[in-house]
Design brief:
single chain; alpha+beta; four-stranded mixed β-sheet; 8 strands; 15% strand
C-alpha cells in the first residue's frame, strides 16, 4: 500500500513555493489559466522525498505512514524534475531534495516580503555553487549571519601574516581544497567580484549573493 499525499498536503507543498518547481535551477511556474475561465492548468507534482512504498526511490522504513504522507516528506516539482528525481535516486538524494526544498521555500518567503529581492538567476547560480562547494557556502552563510554588514573577504593560509583592516571575512586554503578554483567559479557566476591588491587575494560579495545567503540562513533555522 502506498502512503500517498492528501489533496491538502499537495496544496500546502505547492503554495509554500509559489507553485514553482523547487529545483533552484528550474523554478518553472507550474500553475496557470486554462481556456475555460472556471478552471486552471497544473503541471506540477508533489513528489515524495522518501518513497511512499517500499519499492519506491529513497524509501525509508523507519518512517511511519503518517510521516510518509506528511508535507515534510514532500517537495513540489515540475513534471520534468518530478520524473527525474524518481528515476535516479542516487543522483537525487534525500539530502539534495531537502536542500532544494529549503532553498525554494526561502526564496519564496523572501519574494513575499520583498518582491524585488533575490532573482531567479541568482538563485540558480547559488544552487550550482552549493552543489559544487557546500562546505564553503555554508561557512559563508554562517559568517554573514554573524556579520551582516561585512562584504569583503580574503583568501589566506593560516600560517601567513596579514595586516587586516578589521572588517574582512577570511577563508583559508587549509580548510577548503582547491579554494582558488572555487573562488573563480563564484566569480564566474557573478556572486563575488575580485578586488585584490598588495598581493592579497581580496573579494567582494555581490549584494544579491548576500541577500540569498541571509534568506537561506533564516529559513534553514526552521527546516
Amino acid at each position: 500500500m502506498r502512503d500517498d499525499f492528501s489533496l491538502g498536503a499537495k496544496e500546502v507543498l505547492a503554495k509554500r513555493v509559489g507553485f514553482r518547481c523547487s529545483n533552484p535551477e528550474c523554478r518553472q511556474l507550474t500553475a496557470g489559466p486554462q481556456a475555460d475561465p472556471t478552471k486552471a492548468v497544473n503541471i506540477g507534482v508533489a513528489a515524495h522525498i522518501t518513497a511512499a512504498s517500499p519499492d519506491g526511490p529513497r524509501f525509508d522504513p523507519s518512517l511511519t505512514p503518517e510521516q510518509r504522507r506528511s508535507p515534510e516528506n514532500g517537495i513540489w516539482l515540475c513534471q520534468n524534475h518530478g520524473k527525474l528525481v524518481d528515476n535516479d535516486a542516487i543522483k537525487y538524494s534525500v539530502i539534495l531534495l531537502r536542500e532544494w526544498k529549503r532553498i525554494a521555500e526561502a526564496m519564496t518567503e523572501r519574494e513575499l516580503v520583498n518582491p524585488r529581492g533575490v532573482s531567479d538567476r541568482t538563485g540558480a547560480a547559488v544552487a550550482k555553487a552549493e552543489r559544487m562547494m557546500p562546505a564553503l557556502i555554508a561557512e559563508m552563510r554562517a559568517d554573514l549571519r554573524e556579520n551582516p554588514l561585512r562584504r569583503e573577504f580574503v583568501v589566506l593560509k593560516k600560517a601567513w601574516s596579514y595586516w587586516a583592516k578589521g572588517n574582512e571575512l577570511v577563508y583559508f586554503y587549509d580548510d577548503h581544497q582547491e579554494l582558488d578554483s572555487k573562488v573563480q567559479v563564484l566569480a564566474s557566476l557573478g556572486l563575488i567580484r575580485e578586488i585584490s591588491y598588495n598581493n592579497v587575494n581580496r573579494f567582494l560579495f555581490a549584494e544579491d549573493f548576500v541577500e540569498y545567503l541571509s534568506v537561506a540562513s533564516s529559513a534553514g533555522s526552521s527546516a
